Amino acid sequence: MKGSTEKITTGHGHPPLNTVKVRRRTPLNRMFAAVYLAGALALFYHHARTLLSSTTISSFLIRFPFLIADIVLVFMWSTTQSFRTRPVIRREFPENLKPVLQNSGEFPGLDVFICTADPYKEPPLGVVNTALSVMAYEYPTEKISVYVSDDGGSELTLFAFMEAAKFAGYWLPFCRKKKIEERCPEAYFRSNYAYCSETEDIKIKYEVMKQRIETTMERGKVGDEYVTKEEEREALRKWTHKFTRQNHSTVIQVLLESGKDKDNSDSLMPNLIYLSRQKSTASPHHFKAGALNTLLRVSAIMTNSPIVLTLDCDMYSNNPLTPQHVLCYICDPAKDPKLGYIQFPQRFHGLNKNDIYASEFIPLFLTNPAGMDGLAGPSYVGTGCFFCRRVFFGPPSSMVVPEIPELSPDHVVDKPISSQEVLALANNVAGCNYEEDSNWGSKVGFRYGSLVEDYYTGYQLQCEGWRSRLCQPDREAFLGDVPISLNEVLSQNKRWSIGLLEVGFSKYSPVTLGVIAMGPLMALSYAHYAFWAIWSLPITIYGFLPQLALLINLPIFPKVSDPWFILYAFLFMSSYTQDCIDFVLAGGTLQIWWSEQRMWLIRGVTSYLFGSFEFSLRCLGFPTSGFNVTSKVVDDEQGKRYEQGVFEFGVASTMFVPLTMAAMINLVSFFHGVIEISRGRRRMEEWFIGMFIAGFVTVNCWPIYEAVALRKDKGRIPTKTTIISAVLVFALYTAASFTSP
Asked: CA–CA distance from 168 to each of 130, 275, 646 (Å)?
């Protein structure tokens, strides 16, 4: 939808590099928010009056949780209004860069950080494809440096990148010559590419590289027949019997050097550096945030480019002109001096037709960031983000000086990256004890203190006064993989929930520090994510209590003839309608929106609930599970079921127990209500809301019923989970029966 106002950014007589428009529906959003808030306040009045007029303890106890649930729902609704206050649309004009950047020497350097942590969960071939896609940017190659952080410390990953360095000599000039847009080799060769002998020759070279990498993975070691150069043998000799994933020295291997290596067209190659930081069981390593900070220091020593791009290992470049879109902001003569980073939306390939797990996260990656972009800018989402290096060294007004001058963002590197002096210093700053008694992780670099280092870092940077921009080119900048089993999806969500709660209940909480540092609207935006997991309260309450009330014959909602019924109907229907409209206007479909709201309900009784519980245990000092890498490995049978839109359960996860319980109790209570009403024992007018809730949840739970009773494949819900759930539902009903009037 077009905006109502347009601001053209320009300067010094140059044509505009970017524009910004405010969406037209903004005034309507604000009007609706005022009306909805009035309805929410009226609901609280109704709750208070009902509770005060309760005649029995049992009726009070079963109604009180609904007050808590509605308070949480209204709070979370209020946080979403910050995204609707001033959503904007931006547009860039890369074709107008020529007057600003007249030759390749004027392009700023670009350091790309790619992190991987486990070659068996994140196959090296996929990481290689990500690296090759950014090495092939339509950008001066001598200005690009790609750093691969291998936190798994695997010789298999290093070998894969040795092979990638060789293949890059053919792939990069091929991309430039053919001017192809799909510069990830795997994605290009599975597309409808134009056939020619040159293309087939490149494809053969790619298949040879792929076969060597996959064979090495199957063997679990690098075969001598694949190592042809002495420097490769020397690098691989570092993997001795004393070298373990959690205890090893730093490995830095320069695989390509821009000033020395050339491709088969005699053009300069980008830098390609492999890094596995020093690990010790006696020292904290701070997971991905620690790996990124090591990359930040090592890259400062070796290249110190003013722009830094962070990428997930499976998030390949889909648009070779992405850096030019970034330069439309960074090189704009009229740019905001507080501009710290440019965030691209996370987009994905391989989604099934209806996106059954809501993996596209349209609100999270499209609609909400557009709303934040109209304020101070979107949050950092961990990948597809271009930073100005200066942003990692304190607020715009006062730089935090690093401990050595070589780490300063203003330092000029004047030595080759493979020189002994540079490598020695790079090894030093990659040491596991380097950060002791320093500002790294607190005032400098990516921030420690949460499992979601991306959210926490972006939040802290914006609290310091930095601003950001959302960049959405017509062709997606990056495409990533999605998990295709429900257990992987929920485990990932649980980890996010724990990390977000760590921020929400810390001294840096958005509702305290955020309000002071950023203002109430941006603070509400960040609070929406920080308290994501508390959705579990209202979803669990509304998923179980109305159904128990149906079973024990306890009316808790207004009759259809009661004026308060209209309020309930308005609050439910209007919020769902607004959410659906926003979703569709952002490019979604009604079927995918249905998947989105269904997964919201599923997450409420699984990942949000278990994330909240595990966070509570951590606060009480109990040991919990640590950081787990999301698997990017795809099983063929799982892949087929996913393509068919069939839910993948498969494992006996404890998170599936409350989910199966909710499905059972809603189904039983709904049909119990139908039978009672059809026999004339109850009136529909009195039980309509309770019946509607039970029926609505039942419809959403069809994939669970299918997995419990109708399927025989390996992806069904295990019988053990079904039995445990049934027993617990019966116990819950028995306990509730004692409170019936």
From this structure: 12, 19, 39
Strand partners, 339: 467
- Picking from 348, 666, 383, the residue whose alpha carbon sits closest to that of residue 484 is 348
- As a whole number of angstroms, the distance between CA 412 and CA 333 comes to 23
What residue type is 46 in one-letter code? H
Structure tokens at 482: 């999605």
| Sheet containing strand 88-92, strands side by side | 3-11, 14-23, 88-92
Strands 307-312 and 385-388 come out as: antiparallel
How far, in Å, are 285, 299, 428, 438 from residue 433 at the CA level?
9, 18, 9, 10
Q: Which residues contact 310 (CB under 8 A, 6 or more apart)?
A: 113, 115, 292, 382, 383, 384, 385, 387
Tens of pLDDT, residue by residue over 687-722, are 999 999 999 999 999 999 999 999 999 999 999 999
**Residues designated catalytic:** 151, 454
Specify the DSSP class assigned to residue 366.
Answer: I
pLDDT in tens, 465-501: 999 999 999 999 999 999 999 999 999 999 999 999 9
User: For residue 427, what pLDDT is reported?
Assistant: 97
pLDDT above 70 (res 628): no
| pLDDT confidence of residue 682 | 86
Q: Take residue 176 and report the two structure tokens written for it.
A: 């430039």
Q: What is the largest CA-CA distance in the chain?
A: 89
Q: Residue 555: what pLDDT?
A: 87
Q: Which token pair is 579?
A: 């959410």
Q: pTM surpassing 0.90?
A: yes
